């Protein structure tokens, strides 16, 4: 791995954490999260032609109109998830597989759902080749969650949703957290931490403004692709 570039990326993350301390309520992120960020080779998750940008603190296109998120946001969301090594977590929006790889260092098992089949296949192969064996990737609509392995000790959604999908609340363990960007595409979005209370109700906390690609709703995308002719 490119040590100098990696060190730059980690410093940039630490710097941005300090800049946003009043919003995120802390001066530094969980050491375990920073160790995972140091360990995972981000360039392996980026198309060859764009690898020179791999260790910049910025999102990078990964094909199919999607992006790998900014390292600061990946680190922040991983931190907000409050993981323990024994956790089983669900990710919606596998994309490149990078966030899943980070989570795989933090928890026992990661399940990740990606809407775009070719991205799911690519991420699955890549994660396997890099030895992240505790990640399972499936192509499908993340709005429905992955009920077979629920309840989850944490859920992370890496695409912006107009509202919190009910299936994901249902599949969250009581007392557990979901980290999700809420808002409409290309308008103001807010990163939210959702906590499921013992009475089944949820408590939400706004963290900070973000910019994510939209969480697709399957029925909308069917319409767009013209299934009825
Ligand atoms: N976590 C990714 C980046 C996510 S970009 C990474 O580390 O690289 C958001 C991803 O969410 C895109 O790949 C997009 O195709 C996917 N997505 C959008 N709507 C979805 C849905 N309903 N279900 C599952 N994945 C979805």
Give your account of this protein's structure.
By secondary structure, the chain is α/β, with parallel strands linked by helices. It has one domain (3-220): 3-Layer(aba) Sandwich (Rossmann fold), CATH 3.40.50.150. Helices cover 32% and strands 25% of the residues. It contains eight helices and nine strands. α1 packs across α4 and α3 crosses α5. The longest helix is centred in the N-terminal third of the chain and has 17 residues, at 3-19. The chain is globular. It starts with a helix and ends in a 5-residue tail after the last helix.
User: Structural class of the helix and strand makeup?
Assistant: alpha/beta
What CATH architecture would you give?
Answer: 3-Layer(aba) Sandwich
- Span between termini: 50 Å
Broad CATH class: Alpha Beta
For the record, the count of structural domains works out to: 1
Rg is 17 Å
Low-confidence stretches: 222-229
Question: Short summary of the structure?
Answer:
This protein has 229 residues and is an alpha/beta fold. It has eight helices and nine strands.
Question: What is the topology?
Answer:
Layout: H1 3-19, H2 21-24, H3 31-39, E1 60-63, E2 66-68, H4 71-80, E3 88-92, H5 98-106, E4 109-114, H6 117-129, E5 135-139, E6 152-157, H7 166-170, E7 172-182, E8 189-196, E9 202-210, H8 218-224
Parallel strand pairs: 3-4, 3-6, 4-5, 6-7
Antiparallel strand pairs: 1-2, 7-8, 8-9
Helix pairs in contact: 1-4, 3-5
